Amino acid sequence: MNISKITYAVLTAFVLLTVVPSCNKDDNKDVNPEVNPNKTYTSENEEAISKAKIAGKVAPENIPWSETYNSFIGKVGKFSSKISTAIGCGQSGNTAVSPLSVFMAMSMAAECANGETRDEILNTLGISYEELSQNIQQLCRECNRILGYYDEEDENKAKNMIKCVNSLWIKDGAEVKDGGIKILTTKYYSDVFKMDFLNSDVNQIVTSYIKNETRGFLAPNLELTPSTLIMLMNVVYLKEVWNDSDGNLDFTDKKYDFVNYDKSTTSTKLMLGEYVSGKAVVKEKYRKFYTSTNSGLTLTFYVPNDGYTIDDIYNAGILDDETHYVYSDSENRYHTRCLFPEFTANYDSDIKDIIKSLGIKSLFGGCNFSNLTDQDVFCGQIQHVAKLEVKREGVEGAAVTAVMMMESAGPDIEKLKDVYEDFIVDKNFVYVLSRYDVPLFTGVVKKAE
Predict the structure, then answer these.
(1) What are the backbone dihedrals phi and psi of residue 12, each rounded to the nearest 5 degrees, phi first?
(2) Which helix (H) or strand (E) holds 87?
(3) Read out DSSP for 112-167?
(4) Which of 175, 209, 288, 445 has a Cα-to-Cα distance from 369 of 20 to 30 A?
(5) CA distances from 179 to 29, 106, 186, 209 (A)
(6) Helices (H), 168-232
(7) Is the per-residue pLDDT at 354 higher than 80?
(8) Does residue 81 have a pLDDT over 70?
(9) Confidence grade of residue 25 (pLDDT, cut at 50, 70, 90)
(10) Where are the beta strands (DSSP E) in 252-363?
(11) Residue 390 clears pLDDT 50, i.e. is over it
(12) Integer Cα distance of 288 and 449 in angstroms
């Protein structure tokens, strides 16, 4: 998950020069007219959502970049490697996972929990409660911003943006605590909705909310049931172009035989990334290098060497490898460009059992959710939906993680020279798309389009 020291220094400088946005949907335009990543872009079910809302977002303070935050992000990266491979390994087809979305949703659950339930969640996330409390606001801030130029009269024309939106959905009649709600609205800038989960329109409203926050890119049906008492939900949306000109990458003149996971080949032209400083890392099982987007997002490719497959390299140890790129030696300065295919990757499944396997047990039975409610609840489902498109026009991705807390039905419920080189991505590969060491999307591509 690590990027080079030079790239990190450049990206850190970018952070210090970037205008900090407000996360308040209503106030952003007045506070900072250049930044409003949380605007609702479509008005589907706007009236219903407006009636459901009982608390608004709170604008964050300007929190300075610090070593404490750097350490926190490093731990987020470790969790990202763990959850990405736990979800993605063994999946068929091209997969996309948003570890950021899962981290946010589970962090909200940790805020609501106490005792053993909270301890298990935090141990799985790899952080202490003090670290979470101290740094979560800055993570929310860094993941909610316009990344580049856009037309102030029409924010739909924004070419570069990232959003990370949290929300709390409460069933009518549920006994919830004001203190727990305040924590989620102030520390996570969470929207709060009070809903009649018996209403047949509730799933349509939730889908419309997600669709609004992702500019129509993602519109899943989470299938809430009347037994759902509380839903904690995170939505991540990303849109980015490759460069400042027309945004499009050029294709290679010739076609390459891309080796798919099943050993068949697809004849396809590859996109030509721009040359960036560094030489590809080559290890026994794989080689890796990266390409950058217009605003400094890093898309890293892990390509298996001959005799190995992505099954051999898609693990947390390799994704966490800290080998740095070589930029120069006694004779040369290195510049490398990636040649890689367009691809689309998806995921849509309940990850409850995967979360259990990582060490969180009591959330699903014997749950202590007393920071938010004293009612007996358990987690019946953790739905993760993700979609990523990497095209010559740019990158667009979205993800949802929804933690469904149900009314407890008893203990049995648990059953439920300048040297220029080309890094050619011409076979199935693992990828990590990150910003400032925060992995936004990861996955594998088994077949070229």
Answers:
(1) -65, -40
(2) helix 67-88
(3) H--HHHHHHHHHHHT--HHHHHHHHHHHHHHTSEE-S---TT-GGG-SSEEEEEEE
(4) 209
(5) 29, 19, 11, 25
(6) 178-187, 202-213
(7) yes
(8) yes
(9) very low
(10) 256-259, 265-268, 271-272, 276-277, 281-282, 286-292, 298-304, 333-340, 343-350
(11) yes
(12) 21
Using the CB atoms, write b or e for 84-122: b if 16+ within 10 Å.
bbbbbeebeebbbbbbbbbbbbbbbbbbbbeeebbbbbb
Say which DSSP state 175 is in. -
Q: How far, in whole angstroms, is CA 302 from its chain's centroid?
A: 19
3 state DSSP class of 205? helix
Residue 266, both tokens:
């697809």
The widest CA-to-CA distance across the chain, in whole angstroms, is 72
Tracing tokens 């799985």 back to the chain, one arrives at 124
Phi, psi of 88 (to 5 degrees): -80, -30
Q: Both tokens of residue 185? A: 């609205």
Separation between Cα atoms, residue 343 and residue 268, nearest integer Å: 11
Which whole-number Å values give the CA distances from 79 to 84, 203, 420, in the listed order?
Answer: 8, 30, 35
Q: What angle do CA 209, 212, 216 make, to 5 degrees?
A: 120
Cα–Cα distance, 181 to 275 (Å, whole number):
48
Structure tokens at 195: 């809903």
Mean pLDDT of all residues in 330-346: 94
The H or E element that residue 434 is part of is strand 429-435
pTM: 0.81
In 3D space, the residue among 143, 165, 142, 146 whose CA is nearest the CA of residue 155 turns out to be 146
Q: Which two tokens stand for residue 13?
A: 């400088």
Locate all alpha helices (DSSP H) within 214-323, ordered by sequence. 310-313, 316-319
The domains found in the chain, sorted by start residue, are 5-241+346-415 (3.30.497.10), 250-343+417-445 (2.30.39.10)
Strand partners, 302: 288, 430
Burial degree of 178 (CB within 10 A; 0-12, 13-18, 19+): exposed
Contact 42, 215 (CB under 8 A): yes
- Owner of token pair 């946005």: 21
CA distance 85 to 96: 11
Contact 445, 97 (CB under 8 A): no
Q: How far apart are CA 283 and CA 287, in angstroms?
A: 6
Secondary structure element (H or E) that encloses residue 11, with its range: helix 5-17
Q: In the structure encoding, which two tokens stand for residue 408, read together?
A: 């407890």
Q: Which two tokens stand for residue 392?
A: 């010559």
Q: Which residue has the tokens 């000109």?
A: 245
**Residue 122 half-sphere exposure, CB side, CA atoms within 13 Å?**
18
One-letter amino acid identity for 47?
A: E
Looking up tokens 């005792």 gives 115
Listed in order, strand segments (DSSP E) in 9-77 are: 53-55
